[in-house]
């Protein structure tokens, strides 16, 4: 018998794998969270599958989303990236990843601790440190933003991040498991927290 999945999942294998193994599963690694936040910003005005299919290209172009490396990208590097057919060649979007890396380094890199060690803690604080489990039965019930995503958006903007509006933040929060928005009938609904067991 076929597994029941959320209504937004198409039949593309890339999408199926993303839904089954990635979306909604809690992520606590700071660099992985940084990468996902940047990729969600790239989605603005496009479908998520477009970015998903370019993810490996983004990882290659942006030093595996290492903020310390990206923060040093200069104008010449921007021009080089704008020639890269594997990513979305939009100057604002390319610059947004660099701007976000610089904001990350300015706020979450500490000579005493590990780089970005508190970025994860900072982001998870907007949901009280644990996933919020919703009980949606239909796609129409899922909001495009929440009070938590609005608060996160304001806080990130204040720190110098961009392409982090409340809708982008909510998509990010869903993707990294801060909200479990799998439909109640979806086989992924009872994901659990990887830190438990």
Automatic annotation (TrEMBL):
Pfam families per record: Adenine_glyco
Top-level division of the source organism's lineage: Bacteria
Keyword Protein biosynthesis attached: no
Catalytic activity: Hydrolysis of alkylated DNA, releasing 3-methyladenine
Cited Gene3D superfamilies: Hypothetical protein, domain 2
GO biological process: base-excision repair
Gene Ontology molecular functions: DNA-3-methyladenine glycosylase activity; metal ion binding
Ranges in coiled-coil conformation: none
InterPro entries according to UniProt: Adenine_glyco, DNA-3mA_glycosylase, DNA_glycosylase, Tag
Keywords: DNA damage, DNA repair, Glycosidase, Hydrolase, Metal-binding, Zinc
Binding residues annotated for Zn(2+), in chain numbering: 6, 19, 182, 186
EC number: 3.2.2.20
Primary role: Hydrolysis of the deoxyribose N-glycosidic bond to excise 3-methyladenine from the damaged DNA polymer formed by alkylation lesions.
Listed PANTHER family: DNA-3-METHYLADENINE GLYCOSYLASE 1 (PTHR30037), DNA-3-METHYLADENINE GLYCOSYLASE I (PTHR30037:SF4)
Protein's UniProt name: DNA-3-methyladenine glycosylase I
Organism name: Shewanella benthica
């Amino acid at each position: 018998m076929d597994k029941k999945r959320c209504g937004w999942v198409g039949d593309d294998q890339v999408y199926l794998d993303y839904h089954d193994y990635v979306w909604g599963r809690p992520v606590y690694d700071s660099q992985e969270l940084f990468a996902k936040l940047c990729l969600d910003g790239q989605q603005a005005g496009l479908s998520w599958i477009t970015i998903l299919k370019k993810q490996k290209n983004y990882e290659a172009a942006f030093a595996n989303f290492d903020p310390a490396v990206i923060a040093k990208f200069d104008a010449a590097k921007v021009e080089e990236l704008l020639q890269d057919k594997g990513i979305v060649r939009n100057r604002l979007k390319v610059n947004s990843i660099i701007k976000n890396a610089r904001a990350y380094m300015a706020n979450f890199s500490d000579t005493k601790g590990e780089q970005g060690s508190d970025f994860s803690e900072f982001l998870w604080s907007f949901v009280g440190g644990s996933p919020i489990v919703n009980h949606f039965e239909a796609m129409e019930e899922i909001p495009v933003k929440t009070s938590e995503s609005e608060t996160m958006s304001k806080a990130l903007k204040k720190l110098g991040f961009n392409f982090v509006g409340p809708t982008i933040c909510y998509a990010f929060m869903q993707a990294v498991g801060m909200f479990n928005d799998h439909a109640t009938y979806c086989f992924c609904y009872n994901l659990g927290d990887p830190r438990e067991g």
